[in-house]
Structures are given as structure tokens and as C-alpha cells.
Specification:
heterodimer, A: 115 residues, mainly beta, seven-stranded mixed sheet, 0% helix, B: 114 residues, six-stranded mixed sheet, 54% strand
């Protein structure tokens, strides 16, 4: 049973609108990463937050932004939605500071459809 | 730079026969490697991980993978497929001691025929 929860599970937005996706990390995990998974593709890294600051970013424009809160919850915000933003958005929590590649705990994702 | 290539987009096997899902990696340092499974409408579940210890890694549900540095490969195997193994499988690479920016392969869809 996953310790990471995401909300909402599904969302439909209109092109040009803004959206906020939420994630509650597994207890004790100080790092959260967000991924975009387009249909039929592997997840693509958007960015990572550690101790409430951005700790790495993939090839995504600035209209993708995030926040991490002291209670380990986090948000992904996307402004000026485009049709190509339609995807499954995955949140993953982990512990930075542990030795060698520890792997992530993933949530079940938010399916965003932009029309 | 680091990346993974999953050599098959779709693999089909019969129940009870062996499973082989192929993954090659590219990395400028000794990587950490993972296999994740994704069932329909579910999140990603970690099957196993390689982190520079034993080269043969055993995971959950009878899966295992062998890290072969000379071949830059990390293929996933299972001796006998079960219907419940039908899912999408992702090979993932990350830098050691740093789980920032894990890079996913495009995925392999495993179909299990009765």
C-alpha cells in the first residue's frame, strides 16, 4: 500500500487555464519529485524539491512550478495550460541523505486532460 | 549524462514460460539502476534496485535482474510468468548517492497469454 497520496485523481481543464496538483509524501520522506507521463511513454522528470527548495529541474518551461511544505506535502502548478500538458502526473517521495540510490515511493498519479 | 534504452516496447509470453525484459543503460559513472512496474491506473511500484553491491539482484514477485557492466545491461527476468505479471515495466537509471533526476526508459508492455 503506497504511502504517497495524490489529489485529485482526475482533472479536466481548458487550454489557457491554471491547475494545481497536490501530493502528500510518505511520512519521514524529505524529498519530493514530480514526473509527467504522457500516454504510451515513460515518466519525464519535471523537478525535485528538498527542504522546501527546488533541487533539480528537467526540461520543462517556467510555467511549471512547485512548492514543498514543512509537513511534507507538495504542489505542482501549471500555468497557461496547453493541450500537450495532458498527461498522468506522478509524485514520488524519497529520502535524501540516505546512502546510495534509494528509489522512490510513487503515488497513483493525477490524470490531467486539457481540452 | 545518463539514459536507459528498453529494447522491446512489447513482450508477449505464455503463462508459465520465462520472462525477459531487456534494458541497456548509458552513464558516465557507476549508476544505480531500478526496475519499476506499473499496472493500469496504478502508480509505479519498485520491483528491485541495483546499487553497486551484488550484481544479481532479487526483487519482489520472483523477478530478478543482473547488472553486467561489460554489456551495459540490466535485464529483468522471471522463470515463470503469471497472469498477474501483465503490466508496463520501466527500467530506470540514476546517479549513485543522489536520487535526483531518475531517468526512465520508454517502458515495455508485458502481455501474458493463458
Amino acid at each position: 500500500e503506497t504511502g504517497v497520496t495524490q489529489s485529485p485523481t482526475h482533472l479536466i481543464k481548458t487550454r489557457g487555464q491554471q491547475v494545481t496538483l497536490r501530493c502528500s509524501s510518505q511520512s519521514g520522506h524529505n524529498t519530493v519529485s514530480w514526473y509527467q507521463q504522457a500516454l504510451g511513454q515513460g515518466p519525464q522528470f519535471i523537478f525535485q524539491y528538498y527542504r522546501e527548495e527546488e533541487n533539480g529541474r528537467g526540461n520543462f518551461p517556467p510555467r511549471f512550478s512547485g512548492l514543498q511544505f514543512p509537513n511534507y506535502s507538495s504542489e505542482l502548478n501549471v500555468n497557461a495550460l496547453e493541450l500537450d500538458d495532458s498527461a498522468l502526473y506522478l509524485c514520488a517521495s524519497s529520502i535524501t541523505g540516505r546512502t546510495v540510490g534509494y528509489g522512490y515511493t510513487f503515488g497513483s498519479g493525477t490524470r490531467l486532460t486539457v481540452v | 549524462a545518463q539514459s536507459v534504452t528498453q529494447l522491446d516496447s512489447h513482450v508477449s509470453v505464455s503463462e508459465g514460460t520465462p520472462v525477459l525484459l531487456r534494458c541497456n543503460y548509458s552513464s558516465s559513472y557507476s549508476p544505480s539502476l531500478f526496475w519499476y512496474v506499473q499496472h493500469p491506473n496504478k502508480g509505479l511500484q519498485l520491483l528491485l534496485k541495483y546499487t553497486s553491491a551484488a550484481t544479481l539482484v532479487k526483487g519482489i514477485n520472483g523477478f530478478e535482474a543482473e547488472f553486467k557492466k561489460s554489456e551495459t545491461s540490466f535485464h529483468l527476468t522471471k522463470p515463470s510468468a503469471h497472469m498477474s505479471d501483465a503490466a508496463e515495466y520501466f527500467c530506470v537509471v540514476s546517479r549513485p548517492y543522489n536520487n535526483n533526476d531518475m531517468r526512465f526508459g520508454a517502458g515495455t508492455r508485458l502481455t501474458v497469454k493463458p
